[in-house]
Amino acid sequence: MAVPLIFRMIEESGLSSWIRDSPSIFAYWFILSVHALGMGLLVGASVVIDLRILGVARDLPLAPLEELYRIIWIGFWIQVVSGTLLLIAYPTKALTNPDFYIKLTLIGVSVAVMQRIRKRVFGDSERNDSAMMLKGRALAAWSLILWAGAVTAGRLLAYTYNFLKYDYRG
Description:
This protein has one domain (5-156). It is built from seven helices and no strands. The longest helix has 28 residues, at 129-156. It has helices at 5-11, 14-21, 28-53, 68-89, 91-95, 98-122, 129-156. The protein is an all-alpha fold and 170 residues long.
């Protein structure tokens, strides 16, 4: 198998072995659960904003939802830390899988759209709900599509890999 030896070096590290093989409650399954929690915060708060911009829950004022960006960023950084630990556990599994790169691309574009929504919709000092909704409709629709794609790609990582670990027989 022609994968870089760096994968093997990472997989043989103490941290990688501990995450993968430890019976500790704080190892792989805990990190995976924290990753899911971070996804819920990041994607969930983004979806709330997107749906409100698209007209759901019209009685709820849109402007105060800008406060959800704090939750979005907390979820994002939880994702970064837990995702890095999951990557350390199985670098070959992730880094040889095209789906992993699709997931990262969709997350990057989703975050960019999320920031564009914040600037375009919430950045106007003359804010009223109808003007804010009009400015953000297309972006909110794209945001929903992109987040759905990112979550789907992430979930498919468990089933679409070719190599779980570095092949030491080569």
